[in-house]
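User: structure tokens for this one?
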Amino acid sequence: MAIEEQRILLLQAQPGMVLARDVNQGAQVKLCGKGTVLTTDLLQQLDIRGIKRIVVQGRPIAGPTQAEKNEEKRKLAERFSRVQDQPAMIELQRAVERLMRKRWAQ
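Assistant:
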């Protein structure tokens, strides 16, 4: 995903935002195309069709601050602090950390 676009929940979308990618339902049904300006009616139609996420131009939804990310990392480390001698739990902690970084990059 390019820096000039952001994947967001449909619930976060607002009228006036512009799609950065086509919105498809299934493999072959294109609901609306890249460059479409979102309207209240269009958002309702996408919701009715079960669309959960879309990709919009820009970065309209602010992500967590670095301090918030650090706090999440600290809490995760605290949760796993008692099982650092268990290889499977260490792998689980690393997997959760990867998911957190992926989520923050969106």
